[in-house]
Specification:
This protein has helices at about 15-20, 25-50, 55-75, 75-80, 85-105, 110-115, 125-135, 135-140, 145-160, 165-170, 170-195, 205-230, 250-260, 265-295, 300-315. By secondary structure, it is an all-alpha fold.
Length: about 325
């Protein structure tokens, strides 16, 4: 049965990294990723032409984030992921955790708001519609931790341990929908935590760290559950093709180890990004305070010194 549409997945030879990285494009993801890169590039060029600056680091982060999706979905990793639990888990973890983090560090919404022209008074263009969407009740709900954390957890337990996963893996459309879901869940989970873009839910840095660590243990528990299982738990991967030369339970154990590892690595990356953002925010506030002091001639300090002098005179 050809699930992926890239070739006869049942006849795949034993997996090697070289074979996994061979080109095998999924048209949906290839077109979507190229469109995303083109739109982002258009925004950067538009800013540069009018004399504005855009950090190169953001462009690099966004490009790598999109290319990581291409790597997962437009190579034979996608074919092997249809029949090998371990390869599928790599796809899931990268698209739901690594790709969203990099894309969000690229600040695509901020770029769009700066690059899109204003429609004028009383009119609504793409920029105005984007602003309305960002401030909508819908966005306040889907970016709130009471929604994002349960969704993040349900995307593991509610998918893999129910017949829903087998149903989605039974067709190319279902598989694409599942991967888009993984990406969307990652974006809405990490956006309020470490995204550069403005959003309706933006807690303090300490609260963001708590939100991050509230979801990660469930990833670890999920991975441990797969590693400790004494039999295959997902119907799709119970009978791998003989041509692969693998055993279903050992492949599931490998998938569990991958899920467990990915509960740690992105957490560290996000934590480092958060600490850097926190430091940069404090530095900006300090500079604003210095500029304010320069403008008013340190009036607050002078007033405080005058107050101390009056107390001293009163004591004498």
């Amino acid at each position: 049965m050809d699930h992926s549409g890239h070739g006869m997945t049942m006849d795949l030879p034993p997996f090697t990294l070289g074979r996994g990285l061979e080109w095998s494009a999924d048209p949906f993801f290839l077109i979507a990723c190229l469109a995303g890169l083109a739109l982002y590039g258009w925004g950067v060029v538009r800013l540069v032409r009018r004399g504005d600056k855009w950090p190169a680091g953001r462009t690099v982060a966004f490009a790598i984030g999109v290319l990581s999706i291409v790597l997962m979905m437009c190579t034979q990793l996608n074919d092997y992921g249809m029949v090998m639990f371990s390869v599928h888990m790599v796809q899931h973890m990268v698209i739901s955790m690594v790709s969203p983090i990099l894309i969000l560090l690229g600040a695509p919404i901020t770029l769009a708001l700066r690059a899109l022209p204003t429609a004028g008074r009383g009119r609504k263009g793409p920029r105005e519609l984007l602003l309305m969407f960002l401030h909508s009740r819908y966005m306040r709900i889907v970016t709130h931790p009471a929604f994002t954390i349960p969704l993040f957890i349900a995307s593991l337990y509610g998918l893999y341990f129910t017949p829903l996963f087998d149903f989605l893996m039974g067709s190319k459309t279902g598989h694409i929908a599942m991967m888009v879901h993984f990406l969307a869940v990652g974006l809405v989970f990490f956006w309020p935590i470490m995204g550069v873009d403005p959003g309706p839910h933006r807690p303090g840095y300490l609260m963001r760290m708590l939100e991050l660590f509230a979801g990660m243990p469930f990833h670890a528990f999920f991975g441990i559950a797969l590693m400790m299982a004494s039999e295959p738990m997902v119907e799709t991967f119970k009978n791998p093709p003989a041509s692969l030369g693998i055993e279903a339970l050992s492949d599931q154990n490998a998938a569990g180890g991958i899920a467990w590892a990915f509960s740690e690595i992105p957490s560290v990356l996000v934590l480092v990004a958060l600490l850097f953002q926190w430091y940069a925010s404090d530095q900006r506030q300090a500079r604003r305070g210095d500029r304010a002091a320069d403008r008013d001639g340190d009036k607050e300090l002078e007033a405080y010194n005058a107050y101390l002098s009056s107390l001293h005179a009163r004591g004498n």
